[in-house]
């Protein structure tokens, strides 16, 4: 199969070609070496494709191994791989997938997530991890045994197995989104610049034999060989053996993420395409970085028959998606006020395509972080759209221009000009009216009231038209009043009218919001300390909205997870919202916490459950509500009273799992939880 995209055009002349080869080698060295990245993944792939196309037309040119090396630009190591660790041919279209599927004939193919990390080979002897080797240039790599076995280890890659198995595992060391945040926090605390992205962080950290800070990492296996597997032909069966050994596999993470009923294997191209598309749709919510899907023959016999070409197997391809990291130039930093008065910072950047979407704005961290990065107007920055749909600036990227203008934060709130409250890292404005638009947007979000269509611009239009002065006003709106509202964007003279179609949809969504559980209505008030996790806790503890309003500061402080300071915030916020709450009750919102399981058999009846990590196809709030439908009480922390810990993919709370093991608390995988819930609600 031709691995050069049809859109790849050869370079016109030798000079241009040689310059491109130089850029490719420099970019690959940074990519595989864990240094600051110099080129977005999509640009690199396109550059390699053009170099390869040029070599096909001009085979006498010297590309210094770019088009034929297993990992162009990667350096080899001292440990040779007994079997080369090949790369994969790349495809990007349904037509290419169909062409590949046809080469497999009637063989079943398997779809797995393509993790954006660092490949490695791991040997076990009598149930002990004895050696780990990086992929390197595919022919040889570096011994990284010390790095993967030192505390805290690599999640999903146990040092000791539950049985005396001997064999080899190949897979990807990667960072979950939570791993990456924790690693960067530790790295910055150690006085070093943060990593640009998770892949860069893995490569850079693995190279360091000794580190003064902790770097959590994870592992997903995609191949296994050894004792008891000589006659096992199916990849899926071999991965099942891997999972039983306590090693995390790419297959289990892929299958666990896909919606129920979506096949991760098949013989028809359309079935495989369906799985690839479903996985891409879930990409922002997976909890770990993926840059595509791997489609490969399930049968070892078929793999052997098809063989490989110089750098890649013929029995597998990588279906690449649009990259979720890009580089741009910072032009401005806008300061706004959030739902609780917290200052928010948004970068205005040169337009850049990230994950298939043109991005002009990206979120930034707090003032201290911006200063640590040395960001200013003209800075070159890395922009990521992963883990959630909100793009964010993750770091200053590469060598910076000489003419960067340092950014000085405003002394006060941009709306009321009052000085910031700066007792912590997160600056706040204490003027309640400053955060109304943010409050409405937050209340309408999916995890709270789930009012589709009530985004920032529509909320601003309602506020500008004086139709909404507080949360309760939402429930008094009519389609006619909403349709005529318009909002003029700052710095422009262009207005946007909401219109009748959007207005009708909005009114229907607001009406449906009344029926949301009490926990969500508590959260929608935007009171400091009553976020998405604490809303359900307060609803469960007090049972009714009246009881919550009557609670003293001491009553609130006695709730699990609330201290004295937070209790004071909540008490003051409830008092300030007294009139609004009265009006919300008058329009008919839910005021009583429903403790009756929605499932008749109450599969988790009476159990106190804690959820950690990402539950596929569910937000954290939805997962807690699903547990409650099974009769459980959802809690936020593991204690001796906890009955069950549900562990999702990309779990950030390793301390919760460790605490559960210490206390002897049983655990349940996200897949088993979803299966239990699906079986219960359909019975």
Describe this structure in words.
The protein has 683 residues and is α+β, with helices and mostly antiparallel strands. The protein has six domains: 74 residues, no CATH class; 242 residues, DNA ligase/mRNA capping enzyme (D-amino Acid Aminotransferase, Chain A, domain 1), CATH 3.30.470; 97 residues, OB fold (Dihydrolipoamide Acetyltransferase, E2P), CATH 2.40.50; 82 residues, Orthogonal Bundle (DNA polymerase, domain 1); 70 residues, 5' to 3' exonuclease, C-terminal subdomain (DNA polymerase, domain 1, Orthogonal Bundle); 75 residues, BRCT domain (Rossmann fold, 3-Layer(aba) Sandwich). The chain is 35% helix and 19% strand. The protein is built from 24 helices and 25 strands. The strands form seven sheets. A five-stranded mixed beta sheet has the order 2-12-11-3-10. α1 packs across α2 and α3 packs across α9. The longest helix has 20 residues. It starts with 13 loop residues before the first helix and ends with a helix. The N terminus is likely disordered.
The major pleated sheet works out as: 5 strands, mixed
Taking pLDDT < 50 over at least 5 consecutive residues as the criterion, the unreliable ranges are 1-6
- Portion in strands: 15-25%
Helix content: 25-40%
CATH class categorisation of the largest domain: Alpha Beta
Give the strand order of the largest sheet, numbering strands 1, 2, ... along the chain.
2-12-11-3-10
Give the CATH topology of the largest domain.
D-amino Acid Aminotransferase, Chain A, domain 1
What do we call the CATH homologous superfamily of the largest domain? DNA ligase/mRNA capping enzyme
Distance between the termini: 47 Å
Overall structural class, as computed from helix and strand content, comes to alpha+beta
Write down how many β-strands occur, each being a DSSP E stretch of 2 or more residues: 25
Radius of gyration: 27 Å
CATH architecture of the largest domain: 2-Layer Sandwich
Shape: globular
How many domains? The number is: 6
Q: What is the residue-averaged pLDDT? A: 84
What is the tally of helical segments?
24
